[in-house]
Design goal:
Immunoglobulin-like; 17 helices; 7-stranded beta/alpha barrel; alpha/beta; 4 domains; disordered N terminus
Length: 760
């Protein structure tokens, strides 16, 4: 068992060289060779050896193994060589070969030969060489401490250069010798190594750490030079590991993590600058989904997705990046549900949501578009929430700040649902974004990575999440709650992939954390009880008022429809007006913008109606029972216009009724109207010109009619009557004369004579 170290800079003489001196040499060399840290890049060594966690297995089974990956900076590979044994030392038994002089071409002088009286001198005897100094040891000590129970304590024991005094309650420790055996030098000169530490539930043995019960345990990792007993610590780091329960023990359900990214709505007719910004936001969300192994839930404007998928390359990229993710159903146009319901336009909201779903499905057919979850960044009324529920929404995700401003000032447990009361007596769950969102912006991530690694942050985040859940369960009777966390940013934009990627990787090494789609949370998350056990109340009114706007749009629609009825059926303006008018219901426009656009549309419609020039009042004379009137109508526009004509008079009848006339562009058109007189005299005829939709164009024109043909007609009738009488008289006289003639003939007939006695 390793003792708890409190004195880190003590040292003593060993083999004629102090370890402190060697360490000082290493540190001096490191200071000379290490560049000054750039505050804009990730954590770097600022002088001296430093241990940075690059990865780890977070959880282990009882009697399992701990794996820790570290990067060592502040010591170069050359400095490590100083501590390694030399392989080039000469041995005493080595002999030096005789020297051979070079050939100069000159005959050497004869050797005088030895002088018998003077013996040759022998070389002086050399002292024996000292054996090479054995290398100094580089030892890694790993110590475990009492388990944590407060999430606020995690930050004190995780990271590089942690305070050694933050570790309390030592349990066990192991020493791993020698670092050089497991070290790998990378291209940037840093040294990477992996620590493999066994564990034991019961015993404290030399090569295993004792973890008697489940929990989250701090680990202190220290790098020592020389004899470990000398406490020459040159680097300290800390992390947290999770000892899992026994297989037959009751394990708490995992905390489900859901990554959410929202791209702001894009209005029709957006500028090139606005469109470019929207595409950058979309790219950030898509890149996030592509980089993470974990599923991602994206809320993206349908029109923007359609635009991105308009090319084969863009469609393929979306399909590949979002293959394991999901899209949130949205209206085709941005329309606040609370505003729409308050203005009586819930049907418009519903139709826009359906249209938006169709666009998303067509653009990315491999990724589901679901109504299960609704993500809001705006105030939500009770009636609006009820409309969402009726459309199939199962719960709402809401930023914590919005919840505090509109629902309740007391922050809820962000790992469980809050029930919101609806006007019809039902409820709809709310899930508030976790405060961890503040750490997931790009700027916050940059700050984190200046002093820590992404792996260290992920350990910190995981430990806090697990401990927060444990603490809440301890305060609540009953079984552990099912908890979920929404991972995003305060404004719901794409969170930083560097941090989330590390947490995603860490989650694969612990059953306590699991990444899921947001739509799955409805079946994985418990509901908390609010104060008084009553559902919270949403605002009665939310979103901008659309009541006056709806009135304006309805009037504008009637005017446009009237003008459109004057145009040929294939005129494109009819569809353009309808589309533009439908977009103005969007709460992405403010009232001033709507008033400006509708005024322009009304002016355009009025210009079409004003293009029709009615005739001046005139008089005509009808000398017969029937005849025609010629009406001249002008058209000052460049396209043909269709109008309806109606003539009305008490003394003149119009057998063909109302007429629909097409006026030729840029000229007058003569319209011949058949008429029939009812009586003689002068009368007024009212000429009304209107659009085919029934809107009257200008004031009616009065036409005066003079009917004189009925005098001749009376004479004819009188003559006819006389003729009839004469005919009757003549016929009657003739019949009477014939009857008299017959009687006279009877008297003259022989049989008609009188016979008397005289004739006999």
């Amino acid at each position: 068992m390793i003792r708890d170290r409190t004195n880190y800079r003590g040292g003593r003489c060993r083999r004629g060289v102090t370890v402190g001196a060697i360490t000082a040499t290493i540190l001096a060399a490191a200071l000379a060779t290490t560049p000054v840290a750039d505050p804009t890049v990730e954590a770097q060594s600022t002088g001296g050896p430093r241990l940075d966690l690059t990865g780890q297995r977070f959880a282990f089974e009882p009697d399992g193994e701990i794996l820790l990956d570290y990067r060592l900076t502040g010591i170069s590979a050359d400095e490590l060589e100083l501590l390694q044994p030399s392989t080039e030392s000469a041995t005493p038994s080595e002999t030096v070969p005789p020297t051979t002089l070079p050939d100069t071409g000159v005959e050497p002088l004869p050797s005088p030969g030895p002088t018998p009286e003077t013996p040759p001198e022998l070389p002086p005897e050399l002292p024996p060489e000292a054996p090479p100094e054995p290398p100094l040891e580089l030892t890694i000590e790993v110590t475990n401490y009492l388990p944590l129970d407060d999430p606020d304590d995690v930050g004190d024991v995780v990271g590089s250069d942690v305070d050694p005094d933050a570790f309390t309650g030592v349990i066990d420790g192991v020493a791993l010798v020698d670092l050089r055996e497991r070290a790998t030098v990378t291209d940037d000169g840093s040294i990477e190594f992996t620590l493999e530490v066994g564990t034991d539930v019961v015993d404290s043995v030399r090569d295993r750490l004792k973890f008697e019960r489940p929990g989250l345990y701090p680990l202190r990792v220290q790098l020592l030079v020389g004899d470990p007993d000398d406490d020459d610590v040159i680097a300290t780091a800390g992390t947290v590991v999770q000892r899992l329960p026994d297989q037959d023990g009751d394990a708490a359900p995992p905390i489900d993590l859901s990554v959410v990214s929202v791209v702001p709505a894009l209005l029709p007719g957006a500028s090139e600058t606005e469109l470019a910004a929207a595409h950058r936001a979309l790219d950030a969300s898509v890149d996030l989904a592509d980089a993470l192994d974990a599923p991602t839930t994206l809320e993206v404007p349908p029109a923007l997705v359609a635009d991105a998928a308009s090319t084969a390359e863009g469609a393929a990229r979306l399909a590949d990046a979002l293959r394991d993710d999901e899209l949130v159903a949205l209206p085709l146009l941005p329309l606040d549900v609370s505003s729409a319901v308050a203005a009586g336009r819930a049907d418009v909201f519903t139709s826009l949501v359906t249209a938006g779903e169709d666009v998303l499905t067509e653009a990315v057919p491999t990724t589901p578009s679901l109504r299960t979850v609704w993500i809001t960044t705006d105030r939500l009324s009770g009636a609006g929430a009820q409309q969402l529920r009726d459309l199939g929404v199962r719960f709402v995700i809401m930023p914590d700040e919005l919840y505090s401003e509109t629902v309740a000032s007391t922050p809820p447990d962000t790992s469980r649902f809050v029930e919101a009361r609806l006007p019809d007596g039902g409820t709809l769950p709310l899930l508030v974004v976790d405060p961890l969102a503040a750490e997931l912006t790009s700027r916050a991530a940059d700050n984190v990575l200046r002093s820590a690694t992404s792996a260290e942050w992920s350990v910190h985040a995981a430990a806090r999440l697990i401990l927060s859940g444990d603490r809440a369960d301890d305060a609540t009777p009953g079984p552990p709650a099912r908890r979920s966390i929404v991972l995003t940013t305060p404004d719901l934009s794409a969170p930083d992939v560097r941090l989330l990627g590390a947490l995603d990787e860490l989650s694969t090494t612990t059953p306590s954390l699991e990444f899921v789609r947001a739509s799955s949370l409805i079946g994985l998350t418990d509901t908390q009880t609010s104060p008084g056990d009553d559902p919270v109340t949403l605002p009665a009114v939310a979103g901008p008022s659309l009541i006056d706007r709806v009135t304006l749009l309805e009037a504008t629609a009637l005017s446009l429809a009237s003008a459109a009825s004057m145009l040929p059926p294939d005129d494109p303006r009819t569809e353009q007006w309808q589309t533009e008018l439908e977009t103005l219901i969007s709460t992405g426009y403010d009232d001033a913008e709507v008033e400006t656009v509708t005024a322009d549309l009304l002016d355009e419609a009025a210009a079409i109606r004003d293009s029709v020039v009615l005739p001046e009042p005139f008089t005509f004379t009808l000398t017969g029972r029937s005849g025609t009137i010629e009406v001249r109508l002008g058209n000052t526009s460049a396209e043909p216009l269709i109008v309806d004509l109606r003539l009305e008079s008490p003394k003149v009848r119009f057998p063909e009724g109302d007429q629909t006339v097409t006026l030729r562009p840029g000229e007058q058109t003569s319209v011949v109207v058949p008429v029939e007189a009812r009586s003689n005299g002068t009368s007024a005829i009212t000429l009304t010109v209107s659009t085919p939709a029934g809107e009257q164009l200008d004031e009616p024109v009065t036409i005066t009619s003079r009917v004189t043909g009925f005098t001749g007609l009376g004479q004819v009738l009188t003559g006819g009557l006389i003729l009839v009488l004469l005919t009757w008289w003549f016929t009657h006289w003739r019949a009477k004369r014939r009857a008299a003639s017959i009687d006279d003939g009877r008297e003259r007939h022989p049989t008609g004579r009188k016979v008397g006695s005289d004739a006999l």
